[in-house]
Amino acid sequence: MAQVLILTGDGCSPDLDYAVFRMREEGLAPVIAAPAKKALYAVFHQQEDGWDNGIERAWYSISSDAAFDDVDPTQFDGLLIPGGRAPVYLRNSARCIELVRHFIDANKPVAAICRGAILLVSAGAVGRRLTGHSLIRPRVAMGGCTFVESRGEPVRDGNIVTVSGRPFYHVWIRSFLSMLKEARPAATGSQV
Question: Rounded to two decimals, what is the model's pTM?
């Protein structure tokens, strides 16, 4: 059974729930890692008439399975990076960046959505084509990557696939599952 690491923290968004449910539906073993093993405060970003930006509203909490320091990335077949506010501050966590870098360098499947691509840039994914929430465009460019306006289509560059954000959760997970299948051929008898 393939194991999938999911990196997030407080300020995560509903795409985390979707990712966990879909991984379980596929018979995969998702592990949510955060700065500390605890209940995470999830938020939903809603655009209101008259507001220039979204309003952050409370969402359901979800518990992490492990702290970053307790994770051995060599035990995982792929990495999912949900969006929300979490990636914005997790890019300052040396251990989080070290975990992301392992997957990039080991050429394992990586999928990010919304602001998740910030972690890829911080981990040294230089020269990659990435997409995500439009707010990260300058950060992607400053990190030496090309921001692609994808209109909901996945942007794949080697072992990394990125998707813009809600409502394209299904595109994000479908693309990631496809990469996992490529990385774990049926001839090995692996489930994905």
Answer: 0.90
